Amino acid sequence: MSAQPTILVVDDERELADLYAMWVGEDYEVVTAYDGTTALERMSDAIDIVLLDRHMPDITGDRVLEEIRAAGYDCWVIMVTAVDPGLDIVELDLDDYVTKPVTRAQLTRIIENLRVQSRYGGGDRRELESISNKMETLEDEHSVEELTETEGYQRLESELQDLSDSLIEEGDG
């Protein structure tokens, strides 16, 4: 990893991609892609964080995410999208999900939180944070009463409990 982490900004709205790139460009190296195909071409081991739009005309953000994971890249992925989250995010191998519009402060805070986690946590802590972020995102859009009735949310709750228990056991060891 270089001194400055590298962020790949992917959004088919050029103005938005350029705005995000400008916001994070002072503190990070930035690579920009205006479609999914270019994002996959520019993806490399040098990329530490991906800011990924979900709806793009050529390849969806979900598909780009699948390709990134299938290729074995171990980067943080933050979905930044106008698509309200549904229970389908339970299945996505992402680290956070943010609904547009997003502010510079929000984006910077999310990135910094992920960087802190990467310094102090291993794979289990990362997975714990990912599950927690998904639950928080869903709770922002739906009532907890609604969510607790769904299989996907119940699975997240169970995974969160199991991971929490295992991390507590590791701490006692």
UniProtKB/TrEMBL annotation:
**Which residues are annotated as modified residue 4-aspartylphosphate in the UniProt record?**
D53
Lineage of origin: Archaea, Methanobacteriati, Methanobacteriota, Stenosarchaea group, Halobacteria
Gene3D superfamilies according to UniProt? 3.40.50.2300
Q: Which UniProt keywords apply?
A: DNA-binding, Phosphoprotein, Transcription, Transcription regulation, Two-component regulatory system
* Keyword Transcription regulation included in the entry's annotation: yes
Could you tell me one molecular function GO term of this UniProt entry? transcription cis-regulatory region binding
Q: Where is the composition biased (Basic and acidic residues)?
A: 136-145
Composition bias of kind Acidic residues appears in: 159-173
Which segments constitute the Response regulatory domain?
6-115
Give the UniProt entry's GO cellular component terms: cytosol; protein-DNA complex
Protein name in the entry: Response regulator transcription factor
Superkingdom in the source lineage: Archaea
Can you supply a Gene Ontology BP term from the record?
regulation of DNA-templated transcription
Q: Region Disordered: list its residue ranges.
A: 131-173
Is this entry keyworded Nucleotide-binding? no
Matching entries from InterPro entries are given as: CheY-like_superfamily, HalX_domain, Sig_transdc_resp-reg_receiver, WalR-like
